[in-house]
Write a structure and sequence with these properties.
The chain has 243 residues and is mainly alpha-helical. It is built from twelve helices and five strands. The protein has a three-stranded antiparallel β-sheet. Strands 1-2 form a two-stranded antiparallel sheet. Strand 3 and strand 4 form a beta hairpin. It starts with a strand and ends with a helix.
């Protein structure tokens, strides 16, 4: 985190400038999402990001805009991070850091809708991704009616949905660092060109866990996602080393 002071109308304005994604506040993260989605102009972005009045921003010397823009260069590339900078949307709360407590069923549902949205740019998949990612406090994923929940998310601001989309991208980059065999580098490029391979992989993994024993289906849906991810990543690594 950097500290910057600059003069404005004879007054000294002090701002804290993050150097990494995880140093951003929720307000700053949302401002980045809005400017990325072209929902706001540059002046409004600086006003929201640094929490200074818009009228002040319009009075800032062009040199300081150059300095601020260069300091925020890190936002052009999404960094790996295991948490969620947006902790609440309406009365829906984010998953826990490190995906603690998230079931494998919820994880593969979110990721499937995530990749389908990237493939098709169809907002219905973005709504379903959001509806399955953020739940109400203490809610069990297995009990929600996704179709009914989607109706609630259709009423949410597009900027909030875009923030969740970027949040999941950040989570996927974090997973690719710790579990490179299951989430290899360049996986984002695969998402851009289509998600059939990704969604089929999750179905194949689930089928392998169940192994045609229907009595295991409900049990494995509730297994924590990170436990499955660790196991599958290790198995893929072992198989590759055997070749």
């Amino acid at each position: 985190m950097r500290h910057l002071d600059f003069s404005l109308n004879g007054k000294t304005v002090s701002v804290n400038v993050p150097e990494h994604w995880h140093e951003m506040s929720e307000r700053q993260f949302k401002a980045v999402c809005k400017i990325s989605n072209k929902d706001i102009d540059d002046a409004t972005f600086y006003s929201e990001f640094f929490n200074i009045p818009l009228v002040w921003v319009n009075s800032i010397d062009i040199y300081y805009f150059y300095v601020l823009n260069s300091l925020l260069g890190f936002t052009r590339d999404v960094e790996a991070f295991s948490g969620f900078l947006v902790t609440k949307v309406g009365d829906f709360v984010s998953p826990q850091p490190n995906l603690n407590g998230m079931s494998f069923h919820q994880f593969m549902t979110i990721d499937t809708f995530f990749t389908w949205y990237l493939q098709t740019n169809d907002v219905k998949f973005l709504d379903r991704m959001c509806a399955t990612m953020y739940l109400r406090e203490g809610e069990d994923f297995s009990t929600i009616d996704i179709d009914e929940r989607v109706k609630e998310w259709q009423m949410m601001a597009q900027s909030d949905k875009s923030a969740l989309l970027i949040s999941w991208t950040i989570i996927k980059k974090w997973l690719s660092r710790g579990y490179p065999y299951l989430f290899p580098k360049g996986d984002d490029d695969a998402h851009q060109h289509g998600s059939k391979k990704i969604s089929n992989t999750w179905l194949e993994i689930f089928d392998t866990l169940v192994q045609e024993d229907l009595s295991k289906i409900e049990a494995y849906k509730k297994v924590e996602a990170m436990d499955v991810i660790r196991i599958v990543n290790r198995r893929i690594k072992e198989q590759k080393h055997k070749k």
